[in-house]
Write a structure and sequence with these properties.
about 270 residues; 6-stranded mixed beta sheet; 12 strands
């Protein structure tokens, strides 16, 4: 199978990159399944039903979230009827929505997507390792599904690396999100899981992690109330990771994807 994971989509600029590039990428690389983290898609904070539909219409198959999952209050309602939208699996019991889902591709392959949130420098949540272990035991790779994508939404690289190695050999891709800067450590781990500490963001990099520069700089230099953060709206770089799996569901090829904006461009070989 050929999979594409797209890092945190930020505001209008990031959404435009999804609409522009995803259809072309699907066609050029014959992608079987596309996942995008959309927790910053609505003005930098959360996601709306209309935005989720825009992503799905553009060719995204699953949208993962994170700590901003419910910043838009309508998400508390629409997520219940939208299995294509996942919030972290280790949110407290009774939280609306779901943290994993088994999808079927156009060719009939089964793809399990799990969204989990870390705890280091983040909110206090249920144990992410135990939560992921339960999901993997319930739907083992190569038996109940043909591929597994794990979105590790976390601040600390150490926690993301630990989770990836904890799942190595049991997932197709373990990918970090949340810190909005693409790391240079994409690789296949010893037991076959593709990994990158952070996929980066899909947004305007002439910014402070996707936000207009003025207000973040003001907050760092002065301890006074100011205006709210607003997404930067210059040309976005779509950042993500391409993974090709073998018959066992483990990674055989991995390559970074960076298109548009100010970052150096990168695409997999055809």
């Amino acid at each position: 199978m050929r999979l594409l994971f797209i890092g945190d989509v930020i505001g209008r600029s990031g959404r435009a990159a999804i609409v522009e590039h995803v259809p072309r990428l699907r066609q050029r690389y014959a992608l079987d399944f596309v996942v995008a983290n959309g927790e910053n898609a609505a003005g930098g904070f959360g996601i709306t039903e209309a935005i989720a539909r825009e992503f799905l219409d553009a060719g995204v198959d699953c949208i993962t979230l994170g700590n901003h999952a419910f910043d838009q209050r309508e998400a508390l309602v629409f997520i219940e009827r939208a299995p294509q939208v996942l919030r972290p699996v280790n949110f407290p019991a009774g939280t609306p929505g779901r943290g994993s889902w088994l999808y079927e591709t156009a060719r009939g392959e089964r793809v399990l997507v799990i969204n989990v949130m870390g705890r280091v420098f983040m909110d206090a949540l249920d144990d992410p390792f135990a939560s992921v272990e339960r999901e993997l035991n319930a739907c083992p790779l190569g038996q109940a599904c043909d591929a597994i994508v794990l979105d590790i939404h976390a601040e600390a690289s150490s926690e993301k690396q630990a989770m990836a190695n904890f799942c190595d050999g049991r997932v197709s891709l373990a990918i970090g999100t949340h810190t909005h800067v693409p790391t240079a450590d994409w690789r296949i781990l010893p037991h076959g899981a593709a990994f990158q500490s952070d996929a980066g963001m899909t947004g305007d990099y002439d910014s402070v992690i996707g936000m207009d520069k003025e207000e973040p700089i003001r907050r760092f230099t002065r301890k006074t109330p100011g205006s709210r953060f607003e997404p930067a709206n210059g040309p976005a770089t779509l950042c993500g990771l391409f993974v090709e799996t073998g018959g066992d569901g483990l990674a055989r090829r991995v390559a970074p994807v960076r298109i548009g904006g100010v970052l150096g461009q990168a695409l997999p070989e055809d």
